[in-house]
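User: What would this chain look like folded?
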Amino acid sequence: MRRLLLAAAVAAVATPVLAQAPAGSGGPPLRTAVDGTFAPHAFPRLEGGVQGFNVDLFREVARRLGREITIDSASFSGLVPAMNAGRYDFLAAPVTVTRERAESMLFTEGYLYTEFQFGIRRGNAPIRSLEELRGKAIAVNKGSAYDAWAQQNAERYGFTFQAYDTNPDAVQAVMAGRAYAVLAGNTVVRYAASQQRNLVPDFAIRETRAHWAAPFRRDNVELRNQVETVLECMKRDGTIARLSQQWFGDAPGEDSAERTVFPGYGVPDLPGYDPTPHEPRC
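Assistant: Here's the prediction, encoded as structure tokens.
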């Protein structure tokens, strides 16, 4: 397991649950982890360690809390069990908030929306609805949620699909004209488009939209609230939006989760949500 120790500088936020403090005086180092193979959220650096949107995001959260942070890189399947066993205080990896997960973990509010999105080759006619997939071929990453969606909906919408071992292979199928569109997560499509100028982010399946948020153990309410308060300050001052543009290639809209401060603590209308009003002092 690779470990990256990220030293925090002077805290920039005073919140209702944590007074402003010099670096290192806000408590012991935060312990967290990411899936280090999920670009651009977390992926290896040539010089060692990991980099990516989620690494930068929670490095800044720790800095503002006046704490150091230790980020492990591990398989996603083992992250939640490790957190529940006490190895980690929370997870920096993007985790989709579902009702089932919210019944067993506490979540911050979403810092990103995740939704299924198509990417098409520049110059191709845009996809305006799922009905326009009829007669087209789409490329997906084999074994992913997008592969499962394609299998479930190919007959309904009249498209064919090709499953590839990696998402970059699926993108190349579009660039080579073997497929009309690639289907993946919106942030992955945006990142691929920033690396491949002839790929254009296109139609998003809105009914698949969900929050990507940081999970905590159910008994760790205080830390969840501290981290959420800092995330809200980072939304207000534009930090999360800037990181989003840096890593995903374009500026998020005004109604994006990167810019939206949700009421209360957690994801509204899901288990673990606390509607108590609070005003972060940023």
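The mean pLDDT is 90. If you want, I can go into more detail on any region.
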